[in-house]
Write a structure and sequence with these properties.
The complex is a heterodimer of chains A (about 350) and B (about 325).
Chain A lengths: L9 H6 L1 E8 L6 H9 L24 E9 L2 E9 L10 H22 L15 E6 L8 H10 L5 E5 L7 H17 L16 H13 L2 E2 L6 E4 L2 E8 L2 E4 L8 H11 L1 H30 L4 H55 L1
Chain B lengths: L20 H12 L1 E8 L6 H8 L24 E9 L2 E9 L14 H19 L14 E6 L8 H11 L4 E5 L7 H17 L14 H13 L2 E2 L6 E4 L2 E8 L2 E4 L8 H11 L1 H35 L1
Parallel strand pairs in B: 1-3, 1-4, 4-5, 5-6
Antiparallel strand pairs in B: 2-3, 7-8, 8-9
Helix pairs in contact in B: 7-8
Chain lengths: ~350, ~325
């Protein structure tokens, strides 16, 4: 099942890799069940049966990371899944977006300040989120306002992969129409989602085929299930209805298997690279130019002060580093000179000896 | 000689024939026709329009969902009223369906219920005004909402905070019948647990749902009402498509893993809802709207008017 060339060199394969995935969607769309289905274990505990008094209380969004060690065909994966319970559940959900954005940017900030240190912490943990699965409700219409808002606001900071939660509530015809409408909506609103990019000129046929197939499945139709049922004598992960059984691992029933493979085998590298080389870089540039801009604009918010100080410190440290480098170079040159002189002396001594003999 | 009518009824010596009053009434009513006003409330995409069309077995209303990318998202709740007359065995039913697109669809849904409550009260208000007019119509056209179908999203968890707020406000002014929409995404176990939670939450918040208990109920009525109350909220599935199952055409949904038969009681509770609304409680819904909700509105209004009038009189003195 694994593609050796995809996974990088052999060292990666042995060492394993780390991947962070965030999952966002209103409650009741199967977000938590999906996480447990993906990891094939109860990573996120089943929601406690709250007291009926709790139903009207608006708790607000929470950000909850869980880390599991997975083994995919011999490859070790340290997977961190960040759940976001409470998203979209309140009467006024304006606040949700900022919470998530704040979390994503916090991880970037941590990397930024770590990079500017002279003595870096070797054990520093990179908590940047590499992909965000956004759960769309299976309405059959088009996107809701909250869907558009979330994807628009978060796409500059993270790879967004839209998925349809509880997709077994749609017939095959309804699902195809719905997928088409959602993608048209996304295109119309110019929302940059992660769409398995490929270059028909540069990439080989296999890559082009694989990526265009995955792209055509967007948004992925998902079903989550942690229980097993028996179908025709074999045990499968599925949901038992009076009219039949929906199988999670059956590609005819939903896109779970394809998405899982993309996330944990074929495309995690691409997602990580885009996060680091593009999304993080953009954030870094924006943030640093904001702080220099604010210095010249004479804006003195506390945050700008802070980033200005950081920038100054950064420059100072850079200066010190340069000094050290120069000194080392000088010393090196001196030593080389000494060595050369000594060599010359040795050579003349040798020559003198030969003459004597 | 005065007779206590209840304890000793006189025995009729021969057939009088006043028992035909029921058919006299029926004849009149058949000529006049009946009016039924139903409102649907719920987020877009929960199958509201489809359910109405399924209940009345005809394509009455279109979905108001957002389907084109250049369609903007609704920023407010709109009230769309649609009237159609349907006929069954000579009985005319003038059906008025009130849809509420935009409800619960925004990022910020604060006060999205207000236009709905206002609309319901406005119908009471307009009826009262017509009643109080000196020269009033013989038959005042009844636009008061007789039934509000409240659509609950099939999350499988519990009611949302917005559901609780809106149910509280709605049940004060109209007969509310909650349904679990698109219930084909819940397994039977999940459905039972979900209903149980919802009932607990509604009991905790003292939300009074139709049918209400009445002193007039006899044993049979009470038993029927109890069984309805047990079922509520109805877990429904709607469909306008016909699929052939065992040689018979039924309304259903066809998936890769099976066929959902809307009319099969083992699949969903559509039949119970349909019978409840049209075959057993249709008349009662109309009557309780008038006798309970309208009366309550009317007495509040008239008391307020009286107080206003008294205050003005006092000021004049």
């Amino acid at each position: 099942m694994s593609h050796p060339r995809r996974l990088g060199n052999r060292k990666n394969v042995k060492k394993g890799f780390q991947f962070t995935l965030m999952v966002v969607g209103a409650s009741g769309l199967g977000r938590t069940t999906f996480i447990n289905t993906l990891c094939d274990a109860e990573v996120v505990p089943k929601r406690e049966c709250d007291e009926p008094e709790m139903a009207h209380i608006e708790e607000g969004i929470k950000i909850k990371p869980y880390t599991v060690e997975l083994d995919e065909d011999g490859v070790k994966i340290s997977l961190t899944v960040v759940d976001t319970p409470g998203f979209g559940d309140m009467i006024d959900n304006e606040y949700c977006f900022q919470e998530i954005l704040g979390y994503l940017e916090q991880q970037y900030d941590d990397i930024l300040s770590e990079e500017s240190r002279i003595k870096r912490n070797r054990r520093f943990r990179d908590n940047r989120v590499h992909a965000l699965l956004y759960f769309i409700a299976p309405t059959g219409h088009s996107l809701r306002e909250i869907d558009i808002e979330l994807m628009k606001r978060l796409s500059p900071r993270i790879n967004i992969i839209p998925v349809i939660g509880k997709s077994d509530s749609l017939t095959p015809g309804e699902l195809a129409d719905f997928k088409k409408r959602v993608m048209e909506d996304i295109a119309h609103h110019k929302i940059p989602i992660y769409n398995f990019p490929y270059d028909p000129e540069e990439d080989d046929d296999e890559t082009v085929e694989e990526n265009s197939e995955l792209r055509s499945l967007l948004p992925f139709a998902l079903i989550g299930c942690e229980e097993e049922v028996t179908v025709n004598g074999r045990k499968v992960r599925g949901r038992q209805y009076p009219w039949g059984v929906v199988e999670v691992d059956n590609p005819q029933h939903c896109d779970f298997v394809k998405l899982r493979y993309a996330l944990l085998s074929s495309h995690f590298q691409d997602l990580k690279e885009i996060t680091h080389d593009y999304l993080y870089e953009n954030y870094r540039t924006e943030k640093l130019s904001r702080s220099t801009d604010s210095a010249s604009d004479n804006e003195s918010g506390e945050e700008d002060e802070h980033s200005r100080l950081k920038e100054e410190q950064f420059k100072k440290e850079e200066g010190k580093l340069k000094e050290m480098e120069d000194r080392v170079q000088r010393e090196l040159k001196e030593k080389q000179q000494e060595l050369w002189t000594k060599e010359q002396q040795l050579m003349s001594l040798e020559a003198a000896q030969v003459q004597v003999q | 000689m005065s007779v206590d009518a209840e304890s000793t009824q006189p025995i009729l010596q021969s057939y009088v024939g006043f028992d035909s009053i029921t058919s006299q009434i029926e004849k009149k009513l058949l000529k006049r026709g009946f009016q039924f006003n139903v409102m649907v409330v719920g987020q877009s995409g929960l199958g509201k329009s489809t359910l109405i069309n399924t209940i009345f077995a005809s394509h009455l209303i279109d979905s108001k969902g957002r389907t084109q990318p250049d369609e903007p998202t609704r920023q407010t709740v709109e009230i769309h009223s649609f009237t159609e007359t349907i006929v069954e065995r000579g009985v005319k039913l003038r059906l008025n369906i009130v849809d509420t697109p935009g409800y619960g669809d925004q990022v910020n849904n604060e006060n999205c219920w207000e236009p709905i409550i206002k609309y319901i009260k406005d119908q009471h208000s307009s009826f009262l005004r017509k009643e109080l007019t000196a020269m009033r119509d013989r038959f005042i056209q009844d636009t008061r909402i007789h039934c509000c179908l409240f659509f609950i999203s099939p999350t499988g968890h519990s009611l949302k905070p917005i559901d609780i707020v809106v149910l509280k406000k709605l049940t004060e002014v109209v007969n509310v019948v909650p349904v679990i929409a698109k219930s084909d995404s819940l397994t039977i176990e999940e459905r039972i647990a979900f209903k149980h939670r919802i009932k607990e939450e509604m009991a905790f918040h003292n939300i009074k749902l139709y049918p209400y208990e009445s002193d007039e109920d006899d044993e049979q009525d009470a038993a029927l009402n109890e069984s309805i109350q047990d079922l509520i909220p109805f877990a429904v599935v709607g469909s306008e498509k016909t699929i052939v199952v065992d040689g018979k055409p039924v309304r259903g949904r066809q998936n890769r893993w099976g066929v959902i038969n809307v009319e099969n009681e083992n699949h969903c509770e559509f039949i119970h809802l349909r019978n409840f609304l049209t075959r057993t409680h249709l008349q009662d819904l109309i009557e309780t709207t008038s006798l309970i909700h309208y009366e309550s509105f009317r007495s509040k209004q008239l008391l307020a008017l009286k107080e206003n009038g008294q205050q003005q009189q006092q000021q004049q003195h």
